[in-house]
Amino acid sequence: MTVTRASAPRAVQAATQAISATGLRKSYGDKTVLDGIDLTVPAGTVFALLGPNGAGKTTAVKILSTLITPGADSGEIRVGGHDLATDPQAIRAAIGVTGQFSAVDGLITGEENMLLMADLHHLSKREGRRVAAELLERFDLAEAAKKPASTYSGGMKRRLDIAMTLVGGPRIIFLDEPTTGLDPRSRHTMWGIIRELVADGVTVFLTTQYLEEADELADRIAVLNDGKIAAEGSAEELKRIVPGGHVKLRFTDPDAYRSAASTLREAAPDEEALALRIPSDGSQRELRSILDWLDSAGVEADELTVHTPDLDDVFFALTASTVPAQNDQPKENAR
Ligand SMILES: Nc1ncnc2c1ncn2[C@@H]1O[C@H](COP(=O)(O)OP(=O)(O)OP(=O)(O)O)[C@@H](O)[C@H]1O
Predict the structure, then answer these.
(1) Ligand 1 proximity of 57 Cβ (cutoff 6 Å)
(2) Which of 32, 174, 267, 295 is most exposed, with the fewest beta carbons within 10 Å of its own?
(3) Domain named ABC transporter: which ranges (predicted)?
């Protein structure tokens, strides 16, 4: 059953929201990092917080995962159904956090790292071994389990880090830049892992600088800029808010192309490609009116494609005023 926010009783709404925060604030001295942001993450979904370096993404993760306290003037913050102000302990028991700085101890083996986590979660020796073996297998680390973690590749360390986070069976996990510095293959492996978690009903709150990552994984994306949420929506919704979307009509017959071009004077012609571009936000309503218009003009294209701007366009449009030049570089190089 789908519960809509407008009609559901408050208790049901609370149960379906894994994370909710209103008026989240945080300042360091005079510097306002989070200037009253609202966040809502339905259970079992992936939420991506995007933003340039220093936007406050890690700060938001640290507050929601109880590692630091929010500004005193923040509104209500609930995680896993618990109030952060009154019951941070219950939140800690319900969540897992994988930060930018790994919790992996390089001096001991992958398996020992896992068993250490099992101890921290008070699992019995037998249960700890069972959970560790299962997760090491699932994360493709069984073969390397008896080797010191310092010998692992970046991707293996990151997988071990997440495996360690999962020892306690959290229903909500925070992943702060989970693929920064990973090569494309490891990144895709990590995306697969995140998708599996979500298929198991886990809620994922992730921060990322990679727009492609948010596009691939997230149900909803919020762009954080200058202490505020500059825009929020699905990847498709966000792409529609920047100009540049169009419908492209392609023809194989030059005569059909020329006839269409003379009929559709509003369309931008591309003689070489035998294509016409009609500005459009890509919405169903606009598409329908374009199709009606083509029908009434008697134009039949061989191919019709809808082009929406990509998330890069959105990111740059929304964060343009505050992005320093160095942020054109990938993060691992900028550091
Ligand atoms: N303990 C602290 N004391 C003072 N300033 C801080 C502290 N922690 C963070 N800041 C500042 O708050 C701002 C937001 O930092 P934060 O780490 O949340 O950003 P971010 O979006 O995660 O950036 P990045 O992508 O670089 O990790 C930065 O300007 C940072 O310098």
Answers:
(1) yes
(2) 295
(3) 19-251
60: part of which helix (H) or strand (E)? Answer: helix 57-64
Q: Whose CA is nearest to atom 17 of ligand 1?
A: 58
Helix (H, G, I), strand (E, B) or coil at 28: strand
ipTM: 0.95
Say yes or no: 177 and 282 in one domain.
no
Listed in order, strand segments (DSSP E) in the chain are: 17-28, 31-42, 46-50, 77-79, 82-83, 95-98, 172-176, 203-208, 220-225, 228-233, 246-250, 268-270, 275-279, 303-307
For ligand 1, say whether the CB of 58 is within 6 Å of any of its atoms. Answer: yes
CA atoms of 245 and 220, how far apart (whole Å) = 20
Predicted pLDDT of residue 275: 92
Residue 179 in contact with ligand 1 by CB distance below 6 A? no
Q: Would you state the structure tokens that stand for residue 8, as one six-digit string?
A: 């559901």
* 172 close to 79: Cβ distance less than 8 angstroms: yes
Are 29 and 51 contacting, i.e. CB atoms less than 8 angstroms apart?
A: no
Q: Is residue 160 part of a domain?
A: yes
Domain boundary among 207, 240, 273: 240
The number of domains in the chain is: 2
Q: In this model, does residue 90 exceed pLDDT 80?
A: yes
| pTM summary value | 0.75
Domain identity same for 164 and 288: no
**H-helix or E-strand spanning residue 256:** helix 254-263
Q: Are 183 and 62 in the same domain?
A: yes
Residues 78 and 208 in one domain: yes
Distance, CA 84 to ligand 1 centroid (Å)? 21
- Domain shared by 235 and 252, yes or no: no
Residue ranges making up the domain that contains 91: 13-104+152-240
Tens digits of per-residue pLDDT, 283-316? 888 889 888 988 888 888 999 998 777 777 777 7
Domain boundary among 240, 263, 292: 240
